[in-house]
Amino acid sequence: MLDQYIQDKIAELKIEDTVYKLPIIIGSEGERAIDIRALRSQSGHITFDSGFMNTGSCSSDITFLDGEKGILSYRGYPVEDLAKHCTFAEVAYLLVHGSLPTIEELKHFSELLGRFALIHEDMIHFFDGFPAGAPPMAILSSMVNSLMTFYPEMTENPLENIDENAARLISKVRTIAAFSFKKSIGHPLVYPRHDLSYCANFLNMMFDSPVKPYEINNIVVKALNKVLILHADHEQNCSTSTVRLVGSARVNLYASISAGISALWGPLHGGANQAVVEMLEEIYNGGGDYKKFIARAKDSDDPFRLVGFGHRVYKTYDPRSQVIKGICDEMLDALKVNDPLLDIAKEIEEVALKDGYFIDRHLYPNVDFYSGIIYRAIGIPTNMFTVMFALGRLPGWISHWKEMWVDPNWRIGRPRQVYVGPKRRPFVPIHERKGDEE
Ligand code: ACO
Fold this sequence. Notes:
Elements: E1 6-15, E2 18-26, E3 32-34, H1 39-43, E4 63-66, E5 71-74, E6 77-78, H2 79-85, H3 88-97, H4 103-115, H5 121-129, H6 136-150, H7 153-156, H8 162-184, H9 198-207, H10 218-230, H11 238-248, H12 253-264, H13 272-285, H14 290-298, H15 319-334, H16 340-353, H17 356-360, H18 368-378, H19 385-406
Helix pairs in contact: 2-10, 3-10, 3-19, 4-8, 6-8, 6-12, 8-9, 8-19, 10-15, 10-18, 10-19, 11-12, 11-19, 12-19, 13-16, 13-18, 15-18
Bound molecules: acetyl coenzyme *A.
Acetyl coenzyme *A binds near residues 269, 310, 366 and 368.
């Protein structure tokens, strides 16, 4: 796939007196890269790029992102159009299979999602082993890793039935997520229903109760579909790169996804949606003085950051945050919910976007700034927000794992380093050691 994008043009790198000629790669949307794969063997040098700000780790035909222009598309389709016209199941199919499903294909995929929705009854006992108050992301990551023990055939032949296994995972993660919530509040589990769509089924498992049946609200179902679509993939972010890196050691899909869930848990990544609501609550409970928090975010002596602002790749509006803000307004309006946190969020956005500190650093609201407010209105507790992100991101992780597995340029992921520790020195037997001064 990559070879056709390698150009006749070359870049020249001069190290002391030697000039190295490095091929140039131009991707299908014009993204330019210098191919340094032969650099170390030819010159003895590696490149140094902590945080991988300038490093392309793979070629991919799944998602295109232009952080300067604020563009995001899955398999060529703008994310805004997908959020407007598709269900989450349709987009999951698109990501995993590479094309939008026909009516028949979607029907079959939805049947698989229904068929695989149960988890093995033996696995349900696992939930009892977690202590009260265990973080749901820890439960989710452990349970997904455990799935391999119930479906071991994947390790034998990872790509055989990958499409079924993808549907199985997408379906079961939804059930595990809802069950972990029910367990955490000590309520009986609500089993999945074959007659419900992906998102309606999830909401029903989360909120139905023997004493108060849940009424499925189409406005909420629609909003949840859109939010999950907006989270479905985001090229080589921290968790997706983790899935690829772990999978590059030829680790099974479940273990690779479990690692991705752990990466997503971090407050600088998927954990930000929870942190945003916690920050907004703190502002609200403290009397609503959001300007004090903006001032803290600007203070270089204060480590505080305005959560939900800034992004490693977007240096303009995150296109997802625009759509999500619209969904937030529409849903709260339709449900007649008046959330003071939404008002604070809007005020922060308005002030920050006019502030030199944020303008100079290209800090705009990211996808997490408004998603938490939507989850709150749906009734999802704050500690489940990152689990919601994982539900959305799952089809993206699976498609990257699959793509990595069949990539002809695949190699085990193994970055190098610049060693700055002590130079090689003689070993000192224990009775001759003098302690730290040595
Ligand atoms: N509030 C205040 N200042 C900020 C913020 C923020 N949210 N984000 C970045 N900055 C400042 C930094 O202090 C730095 O300032 P300086 O140049 O004066 O030192 C400058 O902007 C550049 O910041 P970096 O940390 O270099 O940017 P990076 O691309 O590495 O970080 C990140 C991106 C981690 C998302 C960062 O913006 C951040 O911490 N945001 C808050 C957490 C958050 O919302 N995370 C969710 C990301 S979206 C996602 O994962 C789905």
